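Progress note, project year one: complex with flavin-adenine dinucleotide.
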Amino acid sequence: MTITDQRPGYRYVGTRPVRHDGLDKVVGKARYAADLVLPGMLYGHILRSPHAHARIVAIDTAAAEAMPGVRAVITGADFPELPADDPERNTTRNLMARDKVLYEGHAIAAVAATSQRAAKAAAKAIAVTYEVLPHTLDIREAMAPGAPLLHDDVFTTGLDSEPSEPSNVANRTCYERGDIEQGFADAAVVVEGEFVTKAVHQGYIEPHACVADTGQDGKTVIWCSSQGHFRVRSQTAAMLGWDTARIKVIPAEIGGGFGGKTTIYLEPLAVALSARAGRPVKLVMSREEVFRATGPTPGSVIRLKLGAADDGKITAAKAWMAYESGAFPGPWAMLGCMCVISPYNVENFLIEGYEVVVNKPVNVAYRAPSAPMAAFAADTLVDEIARRLDMDPIELRLLNCPSAGDQAPYGPKWPRIGLRECLEAVRDSDHYRSEPAPGHGRGVASGFWFNIGEASSATVNLNENGTATVVTGSPDIGGSRASMALMAAEELGIDVYDIQPVVGDTEVVGFTDVTEGSRATFATGMAVVEACRDLKRQLCGRAAVMWDCDSDEVAWSDGQATHRAGEHEPLALAAITAEAGRTGGPLGATASLNARGAGPAFSVQVTDVSVDEETGRVTVERYTTAQDAGTAIHPDYVEGQMQGGVAQGIGWALNEEYIHDADGVMENPGFLDYRIPVASDLPMIETIIVEVPNPNHPYGVRGVGEVGIVPPIPALANAVYDATGARIRELPLSPPRVLAAITARNGDGG
Amino acid sequence: MRYAAPTSVAEAVALLGTEPNSRVFAGATDLVPQLRAGRPEPGVAIDLKKIPRLTSVAIDDGTWRIGAAAPTSDLTANEALTADVPGLVYASGLIGSDQIQNRASLGGNLCNASPAADAVPPLLVNTAQAVVAGPDGERTVPVADIPTGPGRTSLRPGEFVVEFLIDRPPPGTADAYLRLIPRTEMDIAIVGAAARITLDADGSCVAAAIALGAVAPTVITVPAASGGLIGQPIDARALAAVAAAASAAASPIDDKRGTVTYRRQVAGVLAKRAVAEAAGRARNGDGP
Ligand SMILES: Cc1cc2nc3c(=O)[nH]c(=O)nc-3n(C[C@H](O)[C@H](O)[C@H](O)COP(=O)(O)OP(=O)(O)OC[C@H]3O[C@@H](n4cnc5c(N)ncnc54)[C@H](O)[C@@H]3O)c2cc1C
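Model obtained:
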């Protein structure tokens, strides 16, 4: 670990206690949404489109409704039509197709019945008449004139002139600065290339699941797996046309999300079925449904050109970046544009992004969404520049490294960031300083992610025995409960195991945004700290009552109230809570805030690979990742996030891809043929936590959840090049693609 | 679907005769996923694992008898068998994971009739025979004759495989199996290759067999590749010839797991490597 800035000595922050929710998970006691069984509960099943693109001519549910055990059948017609400008309109149309199905797997009807089997059989008995339409799955094809059109009301925004025809291109984004012609004219080296990546899935182990219980009072309770139950509430309300006050959402434990559970798929359907049947309804997706109907991260086509002076300084960048967004438009190309050259100071650039709809499931966030594809292009070309100039790839990056005060390509001035420290940490690592083993290739890459703040709430209650309960609204997807407890322990000066961290439902804790953007420990942690500081003021007041003095004669330090003038023996927290009934009643505090000043995250990684030249199989032999965590509240979970991001990046780089047949039907909707890495595919992923505290957080936290997935693709592609001399600009780097590249290299006399 | 667990071959044969819509199974590691994926359920599922003869693994008068329903973890735990047919045992130990191998059998691997089944190429290079029981009694057939295409076998109605017979390989003999999967485990072979090589005291090849998986509708043997080795030392030239002949013999398809070009190219590579590995074992006396 590298500690770069001065920081106070902490007692709890930076230690590694066993997470509070750990034992339940290890022994199988933790409750996930699919575990819940309620008396009288029905089982739901969703009928999904077999076609990639088709008009729905008619849906006949009569036969299904008459089947034994069937209690409710619903279709798109059972939900209100939202106005065109409603932000949730596309969500509702994704959850239940209306006039058209836009991808294979698009939901068109749902059934609730007394058994899973009966529900499935009834769904099969729903007769749907389709008029099959031509489909498009490929970005370049979807952008071309005459391509099958998904929406007749999508017109490209962001163009110089208003288009008259609808298009699959939803918008154009542009970031521009300086004079790129001059920039390229000043360059001694110009490198360029087209980079192609496929859609990949988040691959969380727990499929989506929920139970909804709607009462005769018109209120409903939902138990579900999500990254944000307040968003489940608002999106469900929007789809049903209900007031949010009628909906209570209880978060279950979550078996992975990685961004994929920041939106909903099942909940309004379960509520509608439950309302119609008058019984609780459970909906659980199969793995196949997860693949066919839930969000992957976009495929992309990126053309990038970089120029550099002969000292290695990057002089110009020109990017054309097209991202698919699935069946409805999203923000993916814009995010890619904002990230692509962010680890570099470039004075002259023109970055254009295009958002393209295609007949695939609607894209959803996946760990630093859009940044890994952008980094693939940028960090491959930077590697080429380093080779052309015969420079060390880390020295080249240090030369172009932004720091506080420089202007980021997407507008703002960089605050204090830790990219330089991450580059230095890798440069000085044992891994980088030792030569790769004979035959192994080495690759380096860097990555950037914004991180966000947003709204969070926390309530901290002190119990009469001096322990505390910390309730937040942030689903814990990566160990955040343990971090909340550590920050509360540090503030209150009580043992971390005397604190019970809890994720509260929508009715017991204040509004909290989704656990996304690496924000929970940063933003919700801030709310916890604020509530604890309020409590400390209250505790001082109570001590003053007990001592019969003025409260400003009391200070809080080291877990106890002390009398400034030393006239009384210090009072431990438990001594004050024991007397709380006498001194003013229970002690509790709540904080709700909009966290500002999230610290940008950077990661730098190095990997060594070996390549079987006869089969094209790549083996990752060694991997080291350095990442700026600001302050690692719980280093185990920081390392876990760093390693998890790398593991997923390795899968994305090497083997993951959607395979479709000619009709646009996914052929590999399971983990057998959609190849996420297994444990034995990965080396030990060595971690270096860099700590450049974020000045905007009481403990210096930056989010750590996402940026780790950004560098692996270019790091591995650069390593494969180093090992084989074959430059591959298309993912995945699967054995057939690598072998073909090696064969082509041999053909070129390489 | 009804479950039945006969305890003798005769009882199983009788049950298959009276219940036309029945199906035998051993580990059910192919059967259950197939039923989950929507294949029609049999009326009676007949569990073969309660018949002692079907789960025993023993050597008898120079011939290995491997029960068709024995879990492959019993093969990988058997040191004497491993010493005799290391390639077959290695292949058995590739199937799925520990959990799968505590259930999966060679009978199921063969009769599921997947061209990518890992244990089948080594059974072929060891010229294994299958003892088949049915309404007309028992018959012994070469394992190679059982699969006839993806998911299809030559077994007649009412028949099932009781055990496999493998003659103890002669001295100077060893087998090997290799497969290409993009991951390191939990994957289906894109190509598999088995070889069995017998060397004389001078290191010259006196007998050879090569089989390829996942490059044709069934696992195939490649006499064109093995025949050329006879009377030769196993050197670089011989291996290059094996690779070329194996690639030429492969007639794979394009599917989600691999392309024709890739499979053909890799079939040659794996055949060559399997021959080299088997020859290495034979040379070092790692065989029987
Ligand atoms: C997670 C997982 C991973 C896997 N990985 C691999 C792998 O790496 N390599 C590989 O080759 N396979 C793999 N498989 C497939 C499977 O495990 C193997 O084919 C296994 O050998 C099948 O044996 P079984 O006893 O379970 O067969 P079962 O499922 O019991 O039977 C399979 C078929 O054979 C028939 N059958 C079974 N026994 C007999 C008999 N004695 N006589 C006649 N017919 C019979 C059954 O009726 C059925 O049609 C995997 C399966 C799973 C679930």
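The pocket of flavin-adenine dinucleotide is lined by residues B 23-31, 33, 48, 68-69, 94-96, 100, 103-105, 107-109, 111-112, 117-118, 155, 160-161 (CB under 6 Å).
Chain A has a mean pLDDT of 96.
No further modelling is planned for this target in the current period.
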